[in-house]
């Protein structure tokens, strides 16, 4: 193994093991005391802040699954209590896009292995310095050489880190041990379920040929769309993917700052409409769902369109959004607790001990945007949902969470929905979500 490949084995495990499980126990205890405003409130907040700093410091130095987890958690920033946000807010934002770059010699070696020893002849230009470094690969800007009379074209070349496939699986296995620690920082998030679902999804991401097939399907579907564009796939190999270059600004750059004026607010609201429509339309149109909700996957182009990028995490939904899940959302949106409970019990999704009102309140936030013609996503609203479900002093809510047992495909859809709700809350946007769902989700209306 080259010196700069993704670290594996003892050294890598030692980095993860530097996050002791005892910290999670202390943080959980401190969090509980702070919620009931005990005498140790300040000390508990400080302990939780130190725990978060340590968690993200380690995640930020790793590639593979550790960094992927950090990126997944970063979209839940709106659920973090304001008094604890300062020490790690910057680390969260960094984890969405940044990662240690691969040495140039390894980039060239991977290109030769994947595209052949004459790979340089395929490019008129190739920039050795990456423009983006993410969890399992990095992106280089290049110019693909035109052939048979076709012009040269600007492209993005995604090159997978050497050993990423092995390290990804090892990371996610190790990180399952730290679900309590993650839960201590992001109270209210089912960290164990998130890591388990991420592991199943992320292991698909190491095959760039599969990603290329999915991207081609999305590109064909949105070829004439006035609001969304998807870059074409130019070439693909198991660990190298070449696609059209996208000129634009990542959506994430608008997070954390208010809209400058009414015109910018209108643009943001338009982005939100496009994102929600894309999320709910593709399962019925393509049988596919983009399953990696984070703002780096959308680029605001100069012409105003949103470009979708990175199709490594795409869920197969051949029959669209599961009809039972649609029923759950419909009953929840209408506050039909009796019908909701009958459905959940009939399908075996809830324990007999669960109470109707508690179940409706527990999952109710997912349907808040569907109860009104236009919904305003705000950080304050998202923070209230996080505090509501995360309060360890509310035994009814804790028991309700344990009583729910949804199938994996339902959990995946709800994770994507919850992730985008968090992102839209950070963007502070208003969107007519109900009309979008009524249009694209059979059975909801």
List the helices and strands and how they pair.
Blueprint: H1 9-17, H2 21-35, H3 41-61, H4 64-74, H5 82-95, H6 104-115, E1 123-126, E2 132-133, E3 137-144, E4 153-160, H7 164-175, H8 179-185, H9 191-202, H10 208-221, E5 228-229, E6 233-237, E7 240-244, E8 249-250, H11 262-286, E9 288-290, E10 298-300, E11 306-308, E12 314-316, H12 323-333, H13 337-346, H14 356-363, E13 375-377, H15 379-390, H16 395-403, H17 408-427, E14 429-431, H18 433-440
Parallel strand pairs: 5-11
Antiparallel strand pairs: 1-3, 2-3, 3-4, 4-7, 6-7, 8-10, 9-12, 10-11, 13-14
Describe this structure in words.
This protein is of the alpha+beta class. The protein contains 18 helices and 14 strands. It folds into three domains: 128 residues, no CATH class; 95 residues, Phosphorylase Kinase, domain 1 (2-Layer Sandwich); 197 residues, no CATH class. It starts with 8 loop residues before the first helix and ends in a 5-residue tail after the last helix. 42% of the residues are buried. The N terminus is likely disordered.
- How many domain regions? 3
Percent in helix: 40-55%
Q: By helix and strand content, what is the structural category?
A: alpha+beta
Largest sheet: 6 strands, antiparallel
- Rg, nearest Å: 22 Å
Question: Could you tell me the strand content as a percent range?
Answer: 5-15%
Query: Please, what is the oligomeric state?
Result: single chain
Shape label: globular
Number of distinct beta strands = 14
Mean pLDDT: 78
State the distance separating the first and last CA atoms.
56 Å
- Which spans have pLDDT < 50 for at least 5 consecutive residues? 1-14, 16-41
Number of helices: 18
């Amino acid at each position: 193994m080259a010196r700069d490949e993704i670290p594996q084995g003892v050294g890598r495990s030692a980095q993860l093991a530097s996050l002791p499980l005892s910290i999670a126990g202390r943080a959980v205890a401190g969090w509980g005391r702070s919620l009931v405003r005990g005498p140790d409130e300040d000390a508990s907040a400080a302990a939780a802040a130190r725990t978060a700093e340590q968690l993200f410091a380690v995640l930020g130095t790793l590639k593979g699954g550790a960094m992927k987890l950090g990126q997944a958690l970063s979209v839940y920033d709106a659920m973090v209590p304001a008094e604890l946000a300062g020490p790690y807010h910057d680390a969260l934002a960094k984890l969405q896009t940044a990662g240690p770059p691969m040495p140039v010699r390894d980039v060239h070696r991977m290109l030769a292995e994947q595209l052949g020893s004459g790979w340089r002849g395929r490019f008129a230009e190739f920039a050795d310095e990456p423009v983006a470094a993410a969890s399992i690969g990095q992106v280089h800007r290049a110019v693909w050489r035109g052939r048979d009379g076709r012009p040269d074209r600007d492209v993005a070349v995604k090159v997978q880190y050497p050993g990423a496939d092995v390290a990804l699986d090892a990371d996610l296995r190790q990180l399952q041990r730290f679900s309590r620690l993650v839960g201590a920082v992001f109270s209210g998030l089912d960290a164990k379920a998130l890591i388990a679902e991420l592991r199943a999804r992320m292991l698909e991401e190491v095959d760039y040929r599969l990603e290329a097939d999915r991207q081609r399907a999305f590109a064909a579907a949105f070829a004439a769309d006035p609001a969304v564009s998807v870059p074409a796939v130019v070439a693909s190999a198991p660990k190298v993917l070449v696609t059209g270059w996208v000129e634009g600004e990542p959506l994430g750059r608008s997070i954390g700052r208010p809209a400058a004026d009414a015109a910018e607010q209108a643009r943001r609201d338009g982005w939100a409409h496009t994102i929600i429509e894309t999320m709910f339309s593709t399962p019925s149109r393509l049988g596919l769902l983009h399953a990696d909700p984070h703002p780096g996957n959308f680029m605001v182009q100069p012409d105003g369109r949103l470009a979708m990028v990175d199709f490594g995490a795409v869920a197969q939904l051949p029959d669209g959004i599961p009809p039972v899940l649609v029923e759950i959302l419909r009953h929840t949106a209408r506050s039909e607790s009796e019908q909701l409970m009958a459905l959940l019990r009939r399908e075996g999704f809830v324990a007999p001990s669960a109470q109707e009102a508690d179940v409706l309140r527990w999952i109710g936030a997912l349907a808040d945007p569907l109860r009104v013609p236009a919904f305003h996503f705000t950080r304050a609203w998202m923070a209230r949902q996080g505090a509501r479900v995360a309060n360890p002093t509310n035994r009814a809510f804790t028991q309700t969470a344990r009583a729910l047992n949804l199938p994996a495909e339902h959990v995946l859809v709800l994770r994507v929905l919850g992730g985008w709700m968090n992102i839209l809350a950070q963007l502070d946007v208003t969107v007519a979500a109900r009309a979008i769902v009524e249009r694209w989700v059979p059975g909801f209306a």
